Amino acid sequence: MASLIFSVAMLLLAGRAVANNAVLRSMFSCQAQGLSGVVPNIDVSYQQGTNLSFIPAGETIKKVWLNDPSQVTMDFDGPMCMQFGQEPKLSAGDCKNSAANVIQLRRIERLKIPGLPKMDNTLLTVITEGQGKKKLYTFRIFYKDTAPGYHTLAIYPDSSSNQTNCARGAY
């Protein structure tokens, strides 16, 4: 009888722990593109990485910019074009065949980069391609000391009804 009570108590505690740490946050593509007039936020912390996934939308990441790289690292789930400066000869990787669908962001101790002011947040810009169309996404990255309540922000394709609502909200 004691082992049954212990087992039930452990299951209840484990269920509560999972419920308190939501693993997934999601939004439609039009919301993530800011078509409703709001730039979406992503929290990054020292404790865990935060994933930005375009897998549900069926989109491939073609290029990424991070305005302030002094506090965030980025990693990708596939080949990614890296460009340094304006000249193509300063690029690394195959820019035509970039095939990443997920960006993993993680906060790091602030690096001192000459000329870069200390900021509380930064802007992440992502260009994707899917179904023959390119899309531009921007996300406001906020630096947190504690782990966010999610570890993945998943971007889903728009339905015809929510795409109209997102575009209307921008005016």
UniProtKB/TrEMBL annotation:
Question: Which residues belong to the signal peptide in this entry?
Answer: 1-19
Keywords linked to the UniProt accession: Signal
Q: Mind telling me what this protein is named?
A: CreA
The species this protein was found in: Anabaena sphaerica FACHB-251
